[in-house]
Amino acid sequence: MRYEGVIYRPPSEFDSLIIQATIGCPHNKCSFCNMYKDRKFKIRSINHIKKDLEYAKDIYGEELEKIFFSDGNTILMKTKDLLDILSYAKSLFPNLKRATMYGSAQYINLKSLEELKELRNHGLTRIHCGMESGDDEVLGKIHKGYTGNEMIKAGKLIKNAGIELSLYYIVGLGGRELFSNHAINSAKVINEIKPDFVRLRTLMPRMGTELYEEYKRGDFQLLNPHEALEETKVLINNINEINTCLVSDHISNYWNIEGLLLRDKKSMIEEIDYALSLDSSNFRNPESGSL
């Protein structure tokens, strides 16, 4: 495959072929993120994308079942171009079961329900969406580019189109100041959308980001492990018993909390309470690593 820059993919796409359909992120303003700061957003030519798909067939054969189309907001591509590459992928890989990509609310909302249904009918099975927060104040502070209501609109569009939706929530993104609002208002958004997955990430300030500089100046208070777990507990307690899987599939998290909200809320809260009973020495340094 021909790749430009560092390639990012969700952990759940570990066994998917990665085809770089776009390069970078068209928004690229989030205060906590430096993933695409080193490159200018552009959409790769359809011919180049198709050639990469052909190359993948030469390497892996036609039995391949999963493709993730990176980079940061591939859903922004023109619908006719997305339909073209989805159809071409299916023609090369007749056993293809899953085609996925990243998509933020402001770009999902540029599509009509009919367009999204057509994408689903051509093989788009899942959108990975960095909600990060459902609280408007937090969303404004991190320059996310949309409101909680706009996230609800986008999430419902995806779900009504029959596409799986994987939402990402960043524990600690509101700091100590907005701890409660961040969790409670995010739960409200989740309750409205009823996504297939809520995937937890825990904030680790990354060097070179606006949020990292705020943290170093003392303008942002990073949660300690117990506070992060308490926030997770508030989030789960405020989500209804909906048919949504909550997953902690990332090394940034302090504890593995996982289950179906419809069935496992009580056991997840009990697991958090157990983690809260442990000394802070059992957890990683809040400043370690990167998100």
Automatic annotation (TrEMBL):
<dbReference type="GO" id="GO:0003824">
    <property type="term" value="F:catalytic activity"/>
</dbReference>
<dbReference type="GO" id="GO:0051536">
    <property type="term" value="F:iron-sulfur cluster binding"/>
</dbReference>
<keyword id="KW-0479">Metal-binding</keyword>
<dbReference type="InterPro" id="IPR007197">
    <property type="entry name" value="rSAM"/>
</dbReference>
<protein>
    <submittedName>
        <fullName>Radical SAM protein</fullName>
    </submittedName>
</protein>
<dbReference type="GO" id="GO:0046872">
    <property type="term" value="F:metal ion binding"/>
</dbReference>
<feature type="domain" description="Radical SAM core">
    <location>
        <begin position="9"/>
        <end position="243"/>
    </location>
</feature>
<keyword id="KW-0411">Iron-sulfur</keyword>
<keyword id="KW-0408">Iron</keyword>
<keyword id="KW-0949">S-adenosyl-L-methionine</keyword>
<dbReference type="Pfam" id="PF04055">
    <property type="entry name" value="Radical_SAM"/>
</dbReference>
<dbReference type="InterPro" id="IPR058240">
    <property type="entry name" value="rSAM_sf"/>
</dbReference>
<dbReference type="InterPro" id="IPR013785">
    <property type="entry name" value="Aldolase_TIM"/>
</dbReference>
<dbReference type="InterPro" id="IPR051198">
    <property type="entry name" value="BchE-like"/>
</dbReference>
<dbReference type="InterPro" id="IPR006638">
    <property type="entry name" value="Elp3/MiaA/NifB-like_rSAM"/>
</dbReference>
